[in-house]
Amino acid sequence: MKTAFIRFVASLLLVLPIVTQAQSFPLETVRSYPFPSDLTSSAQGSRLAWVFNEQGRRNVYVAEGPDFAPRKLTNYTEDDGQEITSLAISADGKWVVYVRGGDHGSNWDEALPVNTSSSPNPIKVQIWSLPFAGGEPKSLSEGDEPLISPKNDQIAFIKGHQVWTAPIDGSSPARNLFTARGENGSIQWSPDGSRLAFVCNRGDHAFVGVFTNSETPIHWLAPSFSRDRSPRWSPDGTQIAFVRTPGAGGAPDSLLTRKHQPWGIWTADVATGKAQPLWQAPKTLAGSLPPTHGGTNLHWAANNRIVFLSYQDGWPHLYSMPATGGSPLLLTPGGFMAEHIQLSPDRKWLVFSGNTGPDKQDIDRRHVVRVPVDKAAVEVLTPGAGLEWTPVVTGDGATIALISATAQRPPLPAVIPFTKGTPRLLAQNLIPANFPTSQLVTPKQVVFKAADGVTVHAQLFEPAGGPAKKPAIIYIHGGPMRQMQLGWNYSDYYSNAYAWNQYLTSLGFAVLSVNYRLGIGYGYAFHQPARGGKNGAAEYQDIRAAGEWLAKQPQIDASRIGVYGGSYGGYLTALALGHDSRLFAAGVDIHGVHDMTNERTEQVSHQIEQIPDAQLAAKVAFESSPISVVNTWTSPVLIIHGDDDRNVRISQSTDLVRRLEAKGVPMETIIIVDDTHHWMRHANALKVGQATADFFKRKLLKTEK
After folding, report:
1. Which one of 56, 345, 500, 616 is most buried, by most CB atoms within 10 A?
2. 704: which DSSP letter?
C-alpha cells in the first residue's frame, strides 16, 4: 500500500507541470483582438466611423443608427505598419476622410512615411476620401491634418507647413490655398465655411490668422510678441477665442527651480482684429498650462460660454465662463480627472472620460461622464467594473458612442442612449474564437507607499495555482504621463502591454504594473512632482518600493523579481538594474532613455549671461541617468530598440550597449529594423513581446524536474 501511494504521488508530480503549463496560451492569441481607435461622428444624423487595427491590418469601419450595424469601409489587407488617423465624417454624413501613413504618436517626423517592410518604394503619407455608402478610396493629396468644410465640399489640410485645399470627391487636384511665412497649422473653418482660422508659428512667437480668399490679405488677430494658439470660432462667426502664452526669450533663469507657466484666454473681434483678455490663469504651479490630453481643451459652447480645462485646483477639471467675461464656473468638482473631452453637436454638453464613479477603485478606471456647459451637474453614465472612454455624441443628439472594455474582454465600440444606459457592443464577432477570454485574470488594485511617503497605485496580476513561491515581474509604463488601469487600456501601445502582462501571468509570473509619480490620474502633485525626471528621478523611489513590496509578499520568491518597460518605462527599468541589481534579478529595457544630459549640456552657454544653475542642472541630469549607475549594474538585461524610433533616439540604446559591454554586464540585444517607437507592424510587436517573455522564462523560471 505504501509503495502504491508513493507511485501515486510521483505520478501527480509528473502531471502538475503539465497542468500548470495548460493554463498558458500563445501570445498570438491574446494579441489577436481588433483594437478600435479614432471614433468619430457626423455633425448631423447618427453616422459613426472608427478604425480597427486587426493584427496590423488597419481599416475604417462605419455604422449608422438606430441599429448601428458595423460595416467595413476600406480593405487594406497587409500588416504593413501604415496607421490611419485624422478620421472624420462630413457634416452631412456623405463622406469619410482619413490620413494613411506616418507615426502620429511620435515626437518628431510624425508626418514622414513609415516603411516597416523595408520596401524600396515606401508608402507615402496621403489623405484619402470615400463615400460613407461605400466605394473605392481616392487619394486627394500627400498631406496631413485634413479638416472638412462645413459646406461638405472640400477639405483644408497641411502640406509642407502650408495650408492646402482639395475637393472632397477628388474631382480636381489639390492646390495651395495660401502661403504664410512660418509653420502653419491648427486650422479651423468658420461656421459657414467661408473663412479659415489658423496658427502661424514663427519660432519665438506665433499669430492667429484668418484667411478669407486669394484677393483678401490675411487678417492677423491682435498680433503680439506672444505665442497664440487654439483658435475657436463663436457660433455666429463674428469672434474667435484663443489661448495666449508668453513668447520665448528673457533673462536666463534656473533650470532646477519649478516655475509657473503663464497662459490666458483671449477673444478677438474677427472684423477688426482687436482682442481683449477674457481670463488669466492663476499664477501658481498648478495654474500653469495644463499638460494633459488636449491641453486647454478650449471650446466655444452654447449660451455664449467659453469652456476650458485647468489644473488650478489640483485636478484637471473643466470650467466655463461667459464670453463677455466673469468668474469661471467649476463644472467638474471632485478628486478625478477629465480627458478625451468632446463638445456635443448642439454645444450644450461636454462628454469625457473620467476616473470617477461610485466604486473607490474607479480612480484606476475610466468611465463616460457628461456635464452641461453651464452647470456643475456631473453624471457618470457608465458606472461599474468595466472601462469606457473617448465618447462622442451623434449629430442627432440621441446617442453616445464610446469604446468599452473589461479586465477580460478587449476594447470594442459601443453605443448608449444619451440619457444613460448599458453599453451595446458593436462588432463582437471580430474577436477571434480562440481569444483566451476565460483564461485572463482580473488585476487587483494595490496601494503602497514609497520611502518618502508618496502613495503609489499598482495593479497585481496573479496566476492561479503553481508553486507556493512564484517569480514576479514589475511592469513600468512609459510616457511618463500615463495611467495603467484595472483592465484594457485606451492606448494601442498600452493595450499591447496589458496583453503582454496577461501572457506573462499565464506563464506563471505574478506581474505588478506600477503607476509611478509623473503619471496622470492622481492629481497635480503626483503628476508634476518636485525633482522628477532629469531633475532628480524622484519617481524611481516608486519602482524600488514596488520591488520591495513584492519581495515581502508570502507568495513571491524575492530572489526572482524581474522588471521591464518601454520608453520612460525602459528608462526606469535601466535605473532599477543600475541602482538595485540586488532586488531585480533581470530586466528588459525597451527603447529606453539612458542619458538625460544631452539637452542640459547644450544649455551650458558661453555667452556673458549664464543660466545660474546650468552646471548643477547638468550634474543632476547625469545622476538621474542610467549611464551614471552602470558600475553597480550586475543583473542580466535584454535591450530592444527600433531603428526608426521617433520618440527616443536609437543612439540612447547604442550608447548604453557599449557601456554595458565594457563593464561585462550579461546582455542580449534585439534591433528592429525600420520600425518606430510604436511597433507599427503587428509582427514586430509579437516579436518584442515573445522575446521579453522568453528572456524572463530563461532568467527567472526554475526548471521543473
Report:
1. 500
2. P
Is the distance from CB of 357 to CB of 380 less than 8 angstroms? yes
Determine the residue type at 334. G
Sign of CA dihedral 673, 677, 681, 684: positive
Can you spell out the DSSP letters for 108-126? Answer: S-TTS---TT--SSPPP-E
**What is the Rg, in whole angstroms, of the alpha carbon atoms belonging to the chain?**
26
- Which residue matches cell numbers 456635443? 344
Would the pLDDT of 10 be above 50?
no
Quote the mean pLDDT of the chain.
94
Helices (H), 130-220: none
For residue range 143-164, what is the model confidence (pLDDT) as tens digits? Answer: 999 999 999 999 999 999 999 9
DSSP 235-267: TTSSEEEEEEEPPS--S---SSS------EEEE
Write the DSSP string, 513-572.
Answer: EEE-TT-SSS-HHHHS-TT-GGGT-TTHHHHHHHHHHHHHSTTEEEEEEEEEEETHHHHH
Instruction: Kindly provide the residue ranges of all beta strands, DSSP E only, lying in 28-151, ordered along the sequence.
Output: 34-41, 47-54, 57-64, 71-72, 84-89, 95-100, 126-131, 138-142, 144-148
Helices 492-506 and 682-700, packing angle to 10 deg: 30
Residue by residue, DSSP assigns 196-235 as: EEEEEE-SS-EEEEEE--TTS--EESS--SSEEEEEEE-T
What are the pLDDT digits (tens) for 225-260? 999 999 999 999 999 999 999 999 999 999 999 999
